[in-house]
Design goal:
The protein is an all-alpha fold and 74 residues long. It has a domain of 44 residues. 58% of the residues lie in helices and 0% in strands. The radius of gyration is 27 Å and the shape is rod-shaped. The chain starts with a helix and ends in a 29-residue tail after the last helix.
Length: 74
């Protein structure tokens, strides 16, 4: 084999592998989409909601001596 044939073979192999990886990604993306969406939602809302939150317990009562928050929800 000459040098040109080796280089051409390597280029063809890269194209074939690239097309194969692309096909696998297109097939796998719908399955990964919901898991990525859930992960991003968990990261966006912070660590407090990673376990689903505990909505059955009321928050502790506020101490009236501390100042109210400067901004609503803060």
């Amino acid at each position: 084999m000459r040098g040109f044939e080796i280089v051409a073979s390597v280029i063809v192999i890269f194209f074939v592998v690239g097309i194969g990886v692309g096909v696998l990604l297109v097939v796998a993306l719908p399955a990964l989409r919901s898991s990525w969406r859930n992960l991003l939602r968990r990261l966006r809302y912070g660590r407090r909601n990673l376990d689903g939150g505990n909505w059955q317990e009321l928050p502790p009562p506020r101490d009236d001596r501390e100042k109210p928050p400067r901004w609503p929800g803060g």
